[in-house]
Amino acid sequence: MKFFLSILALTLLSSCYSIERDCSDFKTGTFEFTYTIDGTEHTSRFKRTEEFNIDYHEEKADSSSIRWINDCEFILKKLHPTSNSEKEAIHMKILSTTEDSYAFEYKLAVKRPNKPSRVEKGIAIKIE
Predict the structure, then answer these.
(1) Which PROSITE patterns does the record match to this protein (predicted)?
(2) 3 φ, ψ (degrees, to nearest 5)
(3) Measured between alpha carbons, how far is 51 from 128 in angstroms, rounded to an integer?
(4) Has residue 86 been placed in a domain?
(5) In whole angstroms, what is the distance from residue 121 CA to residue 92 CA?
(6) Residue 13 domain-assigned?
(7) For the stretch 105-117, what's the b/e string if a residue is b when 16 or more beta carbons lie within 10 angstroms of its beta carbon?
(8) At 76, is the secondary structure helix, strand, or coil?
(9) What is the CATH number of the domain that holds 87?
(10) Could you give the CA distance from residue 113 to residue 103 in angstroms, rounded to a whole number?
């Protein structure tokens, strides 16, 4: 009986907590995020419109088309891929939002057969 009451109490307490997810504020704008490659931290900036995402890293621009699935999920596809891996679409999902930032995760939009899906996470900050 104690076990049942413990589970019930835990369920009630956890159901009161809801993650804020107002994704419409982040459909367009200029953002930046920090990521690490080989132990070195880098900051990247990108500008998003309703139809395009333009990444700026190391003074180079890279454009992708955007196809919105819903207010919090979209598919990115490079407009001018330079390798086979860049031809693959990316599925982006906004997990939670604050006043000026959002947490997201991304993975390949199409699962490769016989390979595990690799999901990466990050936080983007809206600067404009």
Answers:
(1) PROKAR_LIPOPROTEIN
(2) -60, -45
(3) 17
(4) yes
(5) 10
(6) no
(7) ebeebeeeeeeee
(8) strand
(9) 2.40.128.490
(10) 28
Count CA atoms within 13 Å of residue 73 on its CB side: 8
pLDDT at 28: 94
pLDDT of residue 94: 95
Question: How many C-beta atoms lie closer than 10 Å to residue 94's C-beta?
Answer: 20
Q: Residue 102 has what pLDDT?
A: 94
Helices and strands per DSSP (H, E), number in the chain: 1, 8
Q: Please give the residue range of the domain that contains residue 118.
A: 20-126
In the chain, the number of structural domains is: 1
The H or E element that residue 29 is part of is: strand 29-37
Question: pLDDT at position 49, please?
Answer: 92
Q: What is the pLDDT along the chain (128 residues), one digit of tens a residue?
A: 666 556 655 565 555 556 778 899 999 999 998 888 888 888 889 999 989 999 987 778 899 999 999 999 999 999 999 888 889 999 999 999 999 999 999 999 888 888 888 898 999 999 98
The Cα-based distances of 25 to 3, 59, 67, 86, 117 in angstroms read 43, 27, 17, 28, 29
67 found inside a domain = yes
